[in-house]
Amino acid sequence: MSRTRTIWLLIAIVALAVALRSYYITLRSVWFDESFTWRLIQFPVADLIARTAADVHPPLYYILVKSWAVVFGSSALALRSFSVLCAALSIVGAYVFTSEAFRSKRAGIIAAAFLAVSPWVIAYAGEARMYTLGMTFALFSSFALIRGIRAQSFRWFAVYGVLAAAFFYVHYYALFTIAAQALAVLIILLWQTKGRVGEIIQDRSLWAALCGGMLALILVAPWVPRFLAQRSQVQEAYWIPRLTILSVPDTLYRVFVPTSTLPDRSGLMAIVLVLPLVLTILIWLLLGFWRKSDTRDGSYLTLVLALVPFMLGIGISLGSRSLYNDRFFAFAGIFIFIALAALVDRISYSRFRTGAVAIVLIFSIWAHARSWNELDIAHSPGVHGAMQYIAHHRGIDDKILVSSPYIYFPAAHYMKEEFQADQAVRLYSADGKLSHFSGAPIAVASDVASAQDISEYREAVWVVDTTGFTEQPFAAPANWHELSKEVFPEVFVHQGDIVVRQMRVL
Could you tell me which residue ranges the Glycosyltransferase RgtA/B/C/D-like domain spans (predicted)? Predict the structure, then answer.
């Protein structure tokens, strides 16, 4: 494949990826995590970092988005566009890593195409969160790693150290990918030296890798005390449900077919259907390159990057508070698609290879269309629809009282960014206390309305409740009379419906 053709194909794939991630970018309502991003970047950088330390994530994504917002604003379109940009970079990263790891531009193009149309990967670009940025660092750090190993280069391992440190500052699940990268280096060194310890110690790659690792440790060291404090906070209380026997197959199913309504999961059916598919792909990848020694290191690295983060997440979740959640494995899941691309590239008969690529692309497009139809965004206006309704019907002095922090911050986002009425909306809290995972790090005193505050409300009040997140509706005082009630469904089942009640204070 010529250089010119490769460049044009990659440009076309990136353009397709951006288009697939942009056409619906503002249709779905902003949800709690995205509104967390929006509110956090309103604070000065020093305050932003301090408030991030009180949450459960590191600060780099928020700092970058704040810089982006200085130029493009903080609307849902602007914030989600940053994720789309990172998604475009991750497509380039998929090409760069795969073409290097398997010494095949064609494999790189196939991998880029698979990620471009994957509905599971597409979904992350539609959120103002850090996942597409993390994917980008996962791919480029892995590229630097494989280059460093092959060239025995201190320079490439220095690049790796910087990228790995940046990855850590984006999301803590980067640690699982970084651990997988370290394990892959060890496996590759054992393979190259046939396990001879003396040769390993003398191998230039070992010392280059150690220097790269030390550089990464030096760069992340200032944040480690905050990370440990955040970890302790999560162990005390967090929202992630317990790991079950079906958690892993559910995740693997959603990697290929994103859905909130899984098929029949009776018994071990999900494991029988899903795990063999993924494991077969990965094992075929390993065995398919067993005789091709110049790409065996890339095969090992891809295999480990796809499997080890899942294994670590499962192990930790079984031994302590569960940390297992589908979206936290975004950085590992992309390597499943890369493994599939490398496997398809190994098909020697061109028609069969083209057919295999077409099957994967068509299946992904079908799964994306299915997922989009399932979301039914046109009939799920959520918080956005609720705030539009209130903004068009409220009097200029009407108060807006929200009963749950999980919808208060999205409501505040829309009232400020679209309707310039953010001072009208308040969060009701009898004691004024929020947990660290329900908005405490981003809350300010003016957000909360106490029982004493609402006793002073007069005339019209708009009460906004949610049936999701296990929340309870606001119990209106006896002298509040309900005039009307409207319901605005959200996209996902756990989000429930947004219920708007117009009240008259008697």
Answer: 57-224
HEC letters along 455-502: CCCCEEEEEEEECCCCCCCCCCCCCEEEEEEEEEECCCHHHCEEEEEE
Contact 139, 335 (CB under 8 A): no
Nearest C-alpha neighbor of 390 from the set 409, 415, 408, 413: 415
User: CA-CA-CA-CA torsion for 312, 184, 85, 163, nearest 10 degrees?
Assistant: 100
| Axis crossing angle, helix 330-345 with helix 174-193, rounded to the nearest 10 | 40
Maximum CA extent, the chain = 86
Kindly state the tokens that stand for 412. 């505040």
Amino acid at 313: G
CB 225 within 8 A of CB 53: no
Taking residue 355's Cβ as centre, other Cβ atoms within 10 Å add up to 13
Residues with Cβ within 8 Å of 61's Cβ and at least 6 positions away in sequence, in order, are: 37, 129, 130, 133, 170, 171
Look at residue 267 in the predicted model and tell me its pLDDT: 57
The Cα 169–Cα 133 span in angstroms is 11
Task: With a cut of 50, list the residues of the chain below it in pLDDT.
Answer: none
**Predicted pLDDT of residue 237:** 59
Buried b (16+ CB within 10 A) or exposed e, 400-419: bbbbbbbbbbbbbbbbbbeb
pTM here is 0.92
User: What integer pLDDT is reported at residue 259 of this predicted model?
Assistant: 79
Say if residue 98 is exposed, middle or buried (CB neighbours under 10 Å; 0-12, 13-18, 19+): buried
Domain residue limits, the chain: 3-375, 380-505
Give the contacts of 226 (CB within 8 A, at least 6 positions apart). Answer: 53
Helix axes 269-288, 330-345, angle to 10 degrees: 60
